[in-house]
Amino acid sequence: MLSSSRRRQASLAALALTSSLALAACGGGGFEEEGGSDPASSGDGPAELQVLIGSSGDAETQAVEEAAQAWAEESGNEVEVIVANDIAQQLSQGFAGGNPPDLFYVDAGVFGDYAEAGNLYPYLDQMADADDFYPNLVDSFTLDDQAYCAPKDFSTLALQINTEAWKKAGLTDADVPTTWDELETVAQQLTTPDQAGLVLGLGRDRVGAFLVQNGGFWVDGEAGEATATEPTNAEALEYVQGLLDSGSAVLAPDVDAGWGGEAFGTQKAAMTIEGNWIRGAMENDYPDVDYTVAELPEGPAGKGTLLFTQCWGIAADSPNQEAAVSLVEAMTTAEQQLTNAEAFGVMPSRESAQADYVEQFPQDAPFIAGGDYGQGPVNLPGLGPVVADLDSQLEQLKTADVNDILESFQQNAEAELK
C-alpha cells in the first residue's frame, strides 16, 4: 500500500505524465448579454483565443487549424492553434501561472484531476444539442454529477481476426465468437506452433473489457468508489488467466511484440483485441495482412468494451469562455466530426453522425457499435499512481493471484479517495 506522502508525490507525477495525453487551454471569466451581433467574447472587441492541442500528426493539426479559422472568419474572433511540444509541462505551467490556453484537449483518464483542481470550466449544459453526445462518453467527463466538457471523438476495443489463419483452421463466418466460451474455443483452434490463437496487450486498458462484460469494473465513477473486489471482477480475470494457462492466449511481450497490433501485423497472433487505431498501423506497416473485425464477444453480463476519449476543455481562468463555447460548438458538429474522421481516422462522438460514419467506413462498424455500451477509463481524482501500480501487477497476470491484484488496487484506491 502506498504511503500518503508517496501517494501525493506519485499523484502529481502521474498527472504531469498522463497530461501528455490531454490538451491545454487559456483564459478567464464572464459573459456578454445574448442577442447582439457582436463577436462572442467576454470583453470589448473580438475574442483572441488560444487552443493548445497534442496532435497525432500533420493531418490532425491541419484539420483543427482549418476548422478554427473557419469559425474565426464567421464569428469575427481570432484564434491561434498551438501544437504542444510537452503538453504536461505546458499545461502545468499555464494552470500554475493563471494563464492557461482558452481551449484544450482533456484525456478522460486525467479529467478528474483537472476538474477537482478547479482548472476546468463546466459548460456542457450550455450546448443546446448536448444530448446528442454518446451518454457513456459524457459520463467520462462527469464528476460529482456535473458534466463538464464536450467529447471530441472516441475509440473502442474490438476483435481483429486474421482471415488466412481463420480459413486454415477450417472456420467460417458462423464461427466468429460471440461468447466467452466461443472465444476460448476458436482461440484454441487457431493456435499453432508458430502463431498464438489470441494475443492480448498488457494492462487494464485491455483486460478491463472482460470486467465490463462480466458486469464489473475497477471503480464506480458515479458513486466515486473503488469496486475492484466485487466477485465479478475476480471471475473475469480468472477467465483471462484460463486463456493464458491453456496457451490459447498469450500476452504481447511473450511473442516479442510491443502491443497487440504488432503481434497481429507480424502474424504471430491469429487474433488480437485492439482499438480502431489498428487500422492505420495495418495500412502503413502490414498492408498485405488480410483481416476482419468483430465486436468483442459477450460475457455473462452481456456486451462490453472500453472507451478511450478526450474532450474539449475550457479553462476556468479563461476570459473568453463564451467565445470558447462557441468554438467548441463549431468543432463538434456532426459535419466537422465526419470531416475529422476522413482526415485523421477518429470516430465521431455524436450519435447523429453514427449512420453516416458507418456508411463511409463500414469496416469500423464493430468499433463504433461500442459507443452504445462501452465503459470509459478510471477518471476519479488522484488515482494515477494507483492505476499505474495496477498495470504493473497485471503484467504478471498469468501467474498472479487475481484476488491479490484486486485487493491491492482496492486498498490503494480507497486510501486516495478518502
From TrEMBL:
Residues 1-24 form the signal peptide. One of its GO terms (molecular function) is maltose binding. This is ABC transporter substrate-binding protein. GO terms for biological process: maltodextrin transmembrane transport; maltose transport. Keywords: Signal, Sugar transport, Transport. The keyword Transmembrane does not apply. It comes from the Bacteria. Pfam families: SBP_bac_8 (PF13416). The keyword Signal applies. One of its GO terms (cellular component) is ATP-binding cassette (ABC) transporter complex, substrate-binding subunit-containing. InterPro entries: SBP. PANTHER family: MALTOSE-BINDING PERIPLASMIC PROTEIN, MALTOSE_MALTODEXTRIN-BINDING PERIPLASMIC PROTEIN. It comes from Nocardioides alpinus. Belongs to the bacterial solute-binding protein 1 family.
